[in-house]
Amino acid sequence: MPLIVCHSPKGGVGTSFVAAGLAQGLSLLGRDVVALDMTAQDGLKLYFGLAPDQRLPDFDDDVIDQVTVGGVVLRSGWRSAHSVDFAQDLRTGDLPFDGETVYIADVASTDVALAQILRRYALLHICTLSPTAMALAQLPRISPGRPLDALTGTMFVLNQLDETRRFARHATLFLRELLGENLVAQIHRDEAVNEAVGMQQTLSRYAPASAALIGMQALVTLVEARCKAGVAPVEQPEATAARAGKSAAA
Ligand SMILES: Nc1ncnc2c1ncn2[C@@H]1O[C@H](COP(=O)(O)OP(=O)(O)OP(=O)(O)O)[C@@H](O)[C@H]1O
Ligand SMILES: [Mg+2]
Q1: pTM over 0.85
Q2: Is residue 245 pLDDT above 90, yes or no?
Q3: Which residues contact 90 (CB under 8 A, 6 or more apart)?
Q4: Does domain 3-245 have CATH number 3.50.50.60?
Q5: Which residue's CA is the closest to the ligand 1 atom numbered 15?
Q6: Ligand 1, atom 16: nearest CA belongs to which residue?
Q7: Per-residue confidence (pLDDT) for residue 125, from 0 to 100
Q8: Pairing verdict, β 67-69 and 72-76
Q9: Which ligand places an atom closest to the C-alpha of 157?
Q10: Ligand 1: nearest atom to the Cα of 212
Q11: How does pLDDT run across 127-150, given as a tens digit for each residue?
């Protein structure tokens, strides 16, 4: 199932920005992509140049007119992901994660239970971090008891990197050491990210030379390779996932 789960234990690090950039990049490579906003905040569409009041069809709505930007179909998944049947539907395979379409799910940092359920069915988990003490402090919550450099189904992205900041430089070195090859991309902080949202344009249209797009491209290339290989993660669900599944199904 080509599902890619974007979730970080820390909010505000750029999970939605990375999810959107990944969706746009994979679409440019010719993939059929559905970007699923699974947050109540409903902000993923802003990185596609859409207006805040643009309504996205729900994940399981039958619609004739899709909302599509640059070939990426946008859907809201929050309501269906929090329906009583969702966990059961995933277990029985009764959800349309199939075929060649890549589904990119943007999950809120606080929605740990949903992230854990989805990760069990995902090809990949993309965990975005920022070089701040608050983000680093959340690292032990990502996969308790398992070394982060040994996770086969998780790619880490360091976003909002500003190398003029001493803490950011030290955090980068620390994360390289801790995450090894699982730290797959570093994305620079660039004010154009905010400006593009304000201008209701995608970043690649508003600022094609943005420094933030360089790291994003590296991520897209690696994820595309993983999609081609189609290797499912060998990680077993965390012990907590079973509990999370029960609470989400309840
Ligand atoms: N590389 C970057 N350079 C500059 N600003 C950035 C960058 N990445 C994200 N931002 C800004 O940081 C803020 C948070 O980004 P985003 O909404 O993607 O984070 P999030 O982790 O999804 O947050 P939330 O927890 O609220 O869902 C936004 O204002 C966004 O424009
Ligand atoms: Mg978000």
Answers
A1: yes
A2: no
A3: 117, 118, 120, 121
A4: no
A5: 14
A6: 14
A7: 97
A8: antiparallel
A9: 1
A10: 1
A11: 999 999 999 999 999 988 899 999
